[in-house]
Amino acid sequence: MQPFTYASPRSAADAVAAFDRAGDGASYIAGGTSLYDMMKLDVARPRHLIDVTAIAGLDAIETEGDTLRFGSLATMSDVARHERVLADYPVLAESLWKAASQQLRNMATVGGNLLQRTRCIYFRNGTGNPSAVGAYPCNKRQPGSGCAAIDGLDRGQAVLGQSEACTAVSPGDWPVALTALDASIELLGPQGRRVLPIGELYRLPGATPHLEFTVRPGEIITAIMVPKTAAGRQSTYHKIRDRESYAFALASAAVALDMNGARVRRAHIALGGVATRPWRADAAERLLVGQQLTPETALAAGRAALAGATPGRQNGFKIELGARTVADALMIAAERNA
Ligand code: SF4
């Protein structure tokens, strides 16, 4: 742990200005559930912490109009138990309460959760951590150092979107649900406000796995917007993991259905636990349009969602598991009242 300065601005604009003044080594902090972990692991070494938790109003949850708007400081718990979210967007509520523990959900914010870093065991015990037992190469921690997972233990690694430099899974649940529902992210930075589709927030690892997000230096996430859709009511977040709670997904699927009787008018499908970023399953969505939803068509959609997946040495099971997770999620969503 190295010394750091601390500031607690009262507005988002003041936070951006404080970050700008602090210069190199500045980092925003909100709930701290991820950043403190990274600091203990010596992955993050901030020299200036800009604590945004005192900014008034940034935790607002607004459900009026055409858009759901979640202030970035709303906690995971607050959104997961919000009456309107529970009733009309179960996929959002479930993605949150199936993540982490209650204590963590009470602290962690929905904005910070978007920027959670991978749980790859080599990343968390990699080069640069002097207290680690052994020192594993990890391109995400130290660009160009190599990737211990590729010839190592890869049961938890990605089967979609991986590169020769990195196979780490994107760890989030909430970002997967937001991806299925075409959410947008509002940011404020030194150049002003901008809004980007969530699909543009996450980078594929390619040759630069240390660059994970498209957030620019000094930008703070101020809100998450979700367009309202009738499909929200027939939705679910289905998460398969090694134990029933407090575990990351081996495979997950966020699904929302717009049905015309027994036929699918439009399906929204995104995958977690199997890819290097929240993964939109476009081919599966196209396959279902106009189809009657049956266990057979649901499984065909699941297989389409995983088409192109490539296994490593121990994670081939994720391809079939992912397909069946999508199929099960579709059938669960279909049984919900529109
Ligand atoms: Fe690092 Fe990515 Fe390799 Fe894991 S998979 S060791 S995060 S480079």
Q: Can you summarize this structure?
A:
The protein has helices at residues 12-22, 35-40, 76-80, 83-88, 90-97, 102-107, 121-124, 174-180, 282-288, 295-305, 317-334; strands spanning 5-7, 26-29, 48-51, 61-62, 67-71, 184-189, 192-197, 220-227, 235-240, 251-260, 263-272, 279-280.
Written description of the protein model:
With 338 residues, the chain is α+β, with helices and mostly antiparallel strands. Among the domains are: 5-54, Uridine Diphospho-n-acetylenolpyruvylglucosamine Reductase, domain 2 (2-Layer Sandwich), CATH 3.30.43.10; 236-334, 2-Layer Sandwich (Enolase-like, domain 1). It has helices spanning 12-22, 35-40, 76-80, 83-88, 90-97, 102-107, 121-124, 174-180, 282-288, 295-305, 317-334, and strands spanning 5-7, 26-29, 48-51, 61-62, 67-71, 184-189, 192-197, 220-227, 235-240, 251-260, 263-272, 279-280. Strands 4-5-8-6-7 form a 5-stranded antiparallel beta sheet. β10 and β11 form a beta hairpin. The longest helix has 18 residues, at 317-334. The chain is globular and about 60 Å long. The N and C termini lie far apart (51 Å). The model has no long low-confidence stretch (mean pLDDT 95). The site of iron/sulfur cluster has 14 residues, from α7.
Largest sheet: 5 strands, antiparallel
Strand order across the biggest sheet? 4-5-8-6-7
Bound molecules: iron/sulfur cluster
Q: The CATH topology of the domain at 236-334 is what? A: Enolase-like, domain 1
Compute the separation of the termini in Å: 51 Å
